[in-house]
Amino acid sequence: MGVASVPSQGRPVGSSRGQAARIRILGVSHTYAGRGMPVKALENINLTVEPGQFLSIIGPSGCGKSTLLRIVAGLVRSSDGEVVFEVDSGPVRELPGGDIGFVFQDSVLLPWKTVWDNVIFPLQVLGRTGPQAEATIRELLELAGLRGFERALPKELSGGMRQRVSIVRALAMEPRVLLMDEPFGALDALTRDRLNIELLRLWDQHPMTILFVTHSIEEAVFLSDRVVVMSPRPGRIVEDLAIELDRPRAIEVRDEPAFRKYVAHLRGLLG
Asked: Is position 184 within any domain?
């Protein structure tokens, strides 16, 4: 496995609910029973994501990227290995509700609820509503360019706006960890570029540890501190590459030789 140098420390963090978590994925393997023979999705994944880092995972379809995110989220129990989170109080195997946000490819908004009600709903479930929570939601809607759409229904929004609502909904919980499973995969290129910029801006304002799954090499390099490349099924880590591009980043960085060099290297790994 080729492993590029990775900084020992993540970005400075400091959300109002505590620092971002370090994620340690220790020897994780997973096999699906299936209807016929078992299907091994992941094999011996070992990965540490430092607090406040933005790490993208790329690889061929079916290599277990989404399965890995669901294992980190606790939605799937791995066949072997474990995931440990390190927070200010020490290592834990599970984070409390609201400390992990998950953004899917589909915005999965409740169609009968307004933008505001979709965003505040998880906080209501967690019993964490109040003036401070509402102020945070207003701030995030402003940062995401959604001010004035608080009372709009999902059907009244574009696809890109719906995805911004889903990101705001996840960030409103002020999670220590944010998991994103191809959140921009269904969008056109221009909308995707705009949301990449919005995501980095929101992350800068509300630091957290991010695991981001994408099929786009350019998107992974643009967003990330590190890019992990996975092999065809069963998914294994074949490269862990540090992206040493200055922040903050503008779309124009994609024209720089260093950016193109990273993209070419990763494309070569994927064949």
From this structure: yes
